[in-house]
Amino acid sequence: MTANASAKTPVTLLGLGAMGTALARTWLAAGHPLTVWNRTASRAEPLVAEGATAAGTAAEAVAASDLVILCLLDDASVDEALKDADLTGKDLVNLTTTTPAQARERAAWATARGARYLDGGIMAVPPMIGVPEAGGYVFYSGAADLFETHAKTLAVPAGTRFVGTDAGHAALHDVALLSAMYGMFAGAAHAFALIRGEDIDPAAFAPFLTEWLTAMAGPHVTQTADQLTSGDYTTNVVSNLGMQTAGTPTFLTTAAEQGVSPELLTPYFALMRRRLTEGSPSEDLTGVVDLLRR
Ligand code: FVH
Questions:
Q1: Looking at ligand 1, which residue's alpha carbon is closest to its atom 29?
Q2: pLDDT of residue 6
């Protein structure tokens, strides 16, 4: 071990899938002593060649470091991996994607076993890990003291955003952002379907779509947040609900003309119409948020 490595916090990492392997390489490159474990042991071999120590079992890996990071497939894999591990005195950081309720249950489970617990939601794909300019980061929530203790080590693979002591909030932020992403992907799919079959090059169309989504997303999200905070959905409205709802037949008719299913658009348009009935035409689209709450 070099003098540099001895100064760095030892890390144990359970899970060497695409994301776990990317994370592992950043801690190795930063000089952290790294113990790894993976259910399929062969996936540890390249990392051992790069300086990691492979543990024979997950329990041995957990015993090797005070800071234990998990990046497994799902909550059930976490159960499976940790079933024989002694967590007393450990700092457990779980980067496995779960639901907020699973994260809260896991926090209580870990605390009952003598560990401090921090949950994480990774807002990056593997190629963004260890590349600060790619803008990836990880939401963290749960034990604030754990986060403070290991802030520098946790910042090695990607940026960090601590979003509170409720262990479920990192997962909630993660799922909320990814849900919005799927809505955006749905819109892009509909747009490409509309131009498909015409003499329009998708590659030439793509920059228009990117620029439009980029221009609209920021102002819309900020306006929605401001109106939800104030409770007044009629302030600073640029394109009101009445006008936008009146325009929806154009979108549905165009879809029909182009032979495209409207199935990605109709649920949102139905919510706009319902809000128009229950709210006011001078509102923005913010009232749809309230309709979604059951
Ligand atoms: N990759 C991505 O783009 C996303 C980006 C955002 C965050 N996600 C989440 O990260 C978690 C891990 O994702 P991953 O990309 O590393 O996933 P895989 O490459 O499929 O690796 C899965 C690892 O989990 C191990 N595993 C699965 N089941 C079990 C089990 N029952 N017991 C112990 N380990 C288990 C698997 O082991 P093996 O198949 O190699 O033996 C891999 O190490 C995930 O929550 C994403 O949602 C990634």
A1: 77
A2: 54
15 CA distance to ligand 1 centroid (A)? 7
H helix intervals, 196-232: 202-230
In CATH, what is the architecture of 3-165?
3-Layer(aba) Sandwich (3.40)
Q: Which atom of ligand 1 is nearest to the CA of 21?
A: 16
In DSSP terms, which residues pair with 185 in a beta bridge? none
Q: Which residue has the least CA distance to atom 46 on ligand 1?
A: 97
What token pair was written down for 88? 């007393």
C-beta separation of 118 from 91 below 8 A:
yes
Tell me the whole-structure pTM to 2 decimals: 0.94
Counting every residue written for the chain, the total comes to 294
Q: Where are the domains of the chain?
A: 3-165, 197-292
Give per-residue pLDDT as tens, 78-98.
999 999 999 999 999 999 999
Options 3.30.1330.40, 1.10.1040.10, 3.40.50.300, 3.10.120.10; CATH for 197-292 is 1.10.1040.10
CA of 5 to the centre of ligand 1 (A): 27
Pocket lining for ligand 1, CB < 6 angstroms: 15-20, 38-40, 43, 71-74, 77, 80-81, 96-97, 122, 125-126
* Separation in Å, CA 97 to CA 111, 112, 172: 19, 21, 10
